[in-house]
Fold this sequence. Notes:
- Helices cover 45% and strands 21% of the residues.
- It is of the alpha/beta class and 728 residues long.
- The strands form five sheets. The protein has an eight-stranded mixed β-barrel with strand order 19-20-22-23-24-25-26-27, surrounded by five helices. Strands 2-3-1-4-5-6 form a six-stranded mixed β-sheet, sandwiched between helices.
- Strand 20 (508-518) and strand 21 form a beta hairpin.
- Helix 7 (166-179) runs parallel beside helix 10 (284-315) and helix 12 (353-360) packs across helix 13.
- Mean pLDDT is 85; it is low at 1-20.
- One of its GO terms (molecular function) is cyclic-guanylate-specific phosphodiesterase activity.
Amino acid sequence: MTQPAEEQFLFLNEDDNETPEQYSGFWDVLIVDDEPEVHSVTQLALSGLSFWNKQLRFHHAYSGDEAVRKLAEIPNISVVLLDVVMETDDAGLVTVKRIREELNNSQLRIILRTGQPGYAPEENIIREYDINDYKTKTELTRAKLVTSLVTALRSYQQLCELSEHNTGLEKVLDAAKSINGLEDLSAFASQVIEQIARLLDGTGDGVIVSAEAGRSAVLGGSNEYKGSLWQGIEQIDNSRALGVLQQTLQNKSHQISDHDSCFFVEDDKSQFAIYLETKEMVHEQQIKLIEIFLQNVSVAFKNVRMLSELRDAAYKDKLTKLPNRNDFINQIERYFSESVNAYTLYFIDIADFSSINNGLGQDVGDLLLQAVATRIQEDIVGIKYFARIGADVFAALVESEKVTPDSLNHVLSLPFLAGEHLLPVNFHLGVCEQQYFYKDGKDTLKSCYIALNLGKKHLRFNYEYYLPEMEEKMAWQLGVLKELRHDFSEHKLEVWYQPQICLSTREVIGCEALLRWPNEQGSFISPAIFVPLAEQSGLIIPIGQWVLEQACKTQSELLELGFDMRIAVNVSVPQFRDPQFVTKVKETLAKYNITPHKIELEVTESIVMDEPEIVIEALTELKEHGLEIAIDDFGTGFSSLSYLKKLPLNRIKIDRAFVKDIPEDTGAIAELIVSLGKKLGLNTIAEGIENEDQANCLRLMGCEEAQGFMFAKPMPFKELQEFLLSKK
């Protein structure tokens, strides 16, 4: 079987018939590791090898201090294989620093190894201390170890040869320093061209191209070649240069002539051709200097690429290749202005993206994100900056005069092709004008998110513009929520009860448990203020559970007093989303020994429409357990009658909005709800009854039950006992 080309190259100098006397000398290699087994395995893997007519001779150290002593004693060591983690987590890096600074040894080549990838050196350490290579022990196969050693020995040999030529050495070292630390690829390429021209004592025009996976592109150039940056090599408008570059890449060798030179260099991923116009033939010594410099170019390019990849990981979205949230925060700060209002920031949120992801799969979701990103970039005129800042949220900075919410919605209105699926997609927009940008990009991000979240709540529009007072309102809401958390933890919340009456007999048949939050002034904070905040924050889950427990405790105490009635408890969407909700309800009833049909759960239309599947599933299980179910505020939302039929209901509550004007109006909607309830076999209960005329009209319509101030206001448990005793 034929060996791979790399393997053939690595063992080209091996010959079982050769004897030690035939070699011209030794390559001294120092193995530094605190594990003796690593020394044995490494020496075994490299034994019998020779390079450039020299054998390997091994030296051993088991700590950083011992390694420094060995290097001081044996000045001709060429390469050190150095473990990062030994007596301390950074022992290897400390040793590197001592080699370069204390021993002042710049020629020694260093290959770092570690069994713990988490202790990898940072990029600046690799650059600063001229580390040849870094590998984890798990990835360092024999072939890779030999490859790293060959590279290091070659580099060491060339440095030694170069030390004999002080002028050339100084030039190459200066050239190498000039490219080390560069992070931008085009700046790196331009600097390489400039330094090669300097080594050739000239100032000719030049260009550097890369070839990878069958594709070639211009990385950088000087003078006439600057216009070709990032274009394909075929776009170079100089037939002579193009031909020489192509020949260099094809032959993988330098091309030298009287008028120009083209140098070939490669690393483990790419090949490069560096073309330079010259006034005369390049001589052998110059070529040797340039080849040494090219070794540095290869290593430096790997560092630049590594930094580029790290930047991409930190500032670029992997899926869409767009800038990410981190980059957005940095870039948007550039557009802060107290006087100019030329730009507008849009946050574009894909509505119900999680449903698409869950229903059609993540692959389809990814394709949809890419399709949305592509359409926005291609079809929206005036985009200055575009990023993906969240799982389903994009940010577009646009010229205010060219883009409006309506024009953006128009572009997004057509379905998107995601694989085999043509998907109609809805969007929510948050809009922030430049006059409201902040110096800190995070604050601008927060402002636009405030607008986006408000835009999600609009029934008529899908967008909202940011205004500073929104932030003031949000700060107030956060303050309210903080107080609510505190008062709930301090047991300051209360449960009051409003009796429910049979319209025919006027007997008390039940009551509704209502949450009350007293303040320091002796009044109460409206549930319309704090309940939505509790729902948004998730605090409603523990509060709702507490209300249920209080209702069960009240039910038990009322039963002991001889009052047998149901108690209705309101339930919100976040409670249904709790996977343990049904279990908690059952366990609470069992804890207080409550007969299930004595507890009624009330849900609103909006709750059912928000999460119809999980709500219906949970209520069905609880209804089967024996609890009663009521739908509250019926007729005020946008519910579908099909959902009403699916719900396991016992009764419908007629909202006070349809009761308050009776008998002045006909009460047609209330009567329609009563009729609907009868056809579905459900009881009806009207809320908000304030006078006898309303009660009589509803009774004549066929409504069975009612609650309202006419009968009783909400009251604490002690007053409820007194009220019930007065009715007995």
